[in-house]
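Page 47, continued from p. 46.
Same chain as before, 260 aa.
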Amino acid sequence: MRNKLFVIGSPIEQSKSPEVMKDFINRDGLELNYEKKEINKDGLESFVNEAKTGEVLGFNITTPLKEEILKYADEVSEAVKILGAANTANLANGEMSLHNTDYIGFMKDITSQIPKYERYSYAVLGTGGAARSIIYALLKLNIFQITVYTRDEVEAHYKLKNFEDDIEIYPYGYGMDQDVIINATGLGMAGKLDESPLSKEDFEMSRAGFAYDLTYNPEETKFLALAKEAGLITMNGWGMFLGQAEEAFKIWTGADRNEL
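Result:
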């Protein structure tokens, strides 16, 4: 019987996934077990092989494995094909199908947090799997005023090639005049707590009214603290995290936890 669930990545200690998923499991009275497991790129293949032949129903994938996991997939969703990154694996039939629920979590959160969200322009900081999920979500919300800021334009054009017709790409330091600034770099999370992609002066020189950080632990990253000092309305990634967790749980069990 496949009744084991995990969240894997490195570092993993800061993850709140077990708390949320165990709440879902208990509320539905399911006989499932969810744990976090420290896995790096070197240990990923071994974990996947063991999971496929064992009692694992599925697992969530976090940094730095969201792209690496694609090497071992038997099937991928349309979103994963476009984004080149996955955060949820389903092994219900012994084969591994990969999904991306991050973008759904962000769509749920941003539409509830920012009134008239569709009227604003958006700056996305970063080009990794998380950043691509945000771009994908914004486009699905019919938002086409999207600018990506990066430290490596050549790499950015390669990583974001699926979106190049719908976004603009600029280096950091180029005039930032968007309404909402989204940090998808990972700076500010565990291991990088004292780092921020922008300074207080950067926020003050922008016209932004909102700052959103995908990180939810710590609750207030340095990025958000600096944005708040500069007078912006700030939001962390907790709502996005809950939204993506709901979707992942639905993939594994068919249960809809939208009321949570």
